Amino acid sequence: MKITPRKTLYAALLGLCALIAIAGVVAVLLIYPGTPGAAKSLAFKGYVLLPKGALLTVLDYMNVSDTSLFVTDVSTGSVYKIALHNQSLPSDRDLSVFSLEPAAHGVVIDPLTGLAYVSRSKANTVDIFDPASMKLMVRIPVADDPDGIFYDPFHKLVYVASGDAKVGTLIDPQVRSAIATIPLDGKPEFAVFDPQTNLMYQNLQDTNRVVAVDLEKKAVTQHWTLDQCRGPSGIAIDDTSRRLFIVCSGNSALVIFDLTKQRVVQSFPIGGGPDSVVFDGGLHRIYTTGRAGVLVVFQQDSPDGYHVIDSVKLHFGAHTLAVDPVTHFVYVGYASLLVRPRLAIFQPLP
Q1: Are 249 and 273 a contacting pair, CB within 8 Å?
Q2: Mean of all residue pLDDT scores within the chain
Q3: pLDDT at position 52 over 90
Q4: Which element (helix H / strand E) includes 167?
Q5: Domain of 38: which CATH number?
Q6: Which residues have CB under 8 Å from 341's CB, separation 6+?
């Protein structure tokens, strides 16, 4: 069949219309968050609205420290601190902001000094700021593309993972500077500290592996391929039962890694593009969420027994979450277009 210029133009117009329609659907999903879907294990308490910044706002890591929730904004570079009041919802008066250039990713608190550390991938720095005044204190240059940042309570060090550089950088809070870099042989995503072995378990997204990082030796000491997991992203730990919970962005799965057997022992399908996973040891619950905006709740019956108790439809781009270990409230950060970004707050039901 002969293809004429008219048919070519017609096909191009159809393709353009399809792209416009898809963009319109995505825009609607980002602009109008609505109310979360029905849930059996959680009660939706409401939203906390954050300041309007960029046209498109993407929130990243969230961290509960004592009575404050810290949230990073990739789009504007802001770090939000929200004062928490047990069962009541935070208000605008409970919000304070630390702002510098984009893109802010991870945030962690040094419990000894009370100072906060935030990673910035465009500046390639870790910035130390005072949560009381929300003012910058020190900028520390680190390797390219710093992302996740974590505190090691045993060695009393801050560890930041740089994706493009494929290294971990150690920061000593006493001297407020980087003291070492650790080659990781892969692009790091989220990591978690194990208080029993004093190792940092680090996901490597591009090689589908998890590695054990010894911060004292400043080296990777073990590595394991994650069967049934493509693109490992978020990771959480049950250090008592010796289990890692890892979400896989490439194939929308939660895998359970047995640290004693040193292998994946179970796998479960979850919402699309999973990014975050949190383990609430008090309630023995696992929460996952990702780009598709589906909050999946697992109940841990035993170290080898798990079942889904909820799959809650939230909002497209609701990919990051945190849990308050005291109140067990669940906080989920929403991406937003044109409107103010927000956090959805849930109270667990018995």
Answers
A1: yes
A2: 92
A3: no
A4: strand 167-172
A5: 2.130.10.10
A6: 49, 50, 52, 53, 57, 59, 73, 333, 334, 335
Contact 97, 68 (CB under 8 A): no
Asked whether residue 348 falls in the same domain as residue 289, the answer is: yes
How many angstroms separate the Cα of 324 from the Cα of each of 3, 191, 317? 62, 19, 21
Reported as a single tens digit per residue, the pLDDT across 111-123 is 999 999 999 999 9
307 CB-contact burial (10 Å; exposed 0-12 / middle 13-18 / buried 19+): exposed
Domain extent for 304: 32-58+226-350
For the residues 190-212, what does the mean pLDDT come to?
98
Amino acid at 109: I
Amino acid at 194: D
Q: Which is nearest to 286 in space by CA: 309, 264, 266?
A: 309
Q: What is the mean pLDDT of residues 208-221?
A: 97
Q: Print burial letters for 210-227: b (CB count within 10 Å at least 16), e (below 16).
A: bbbbbbeeeebeebbebe
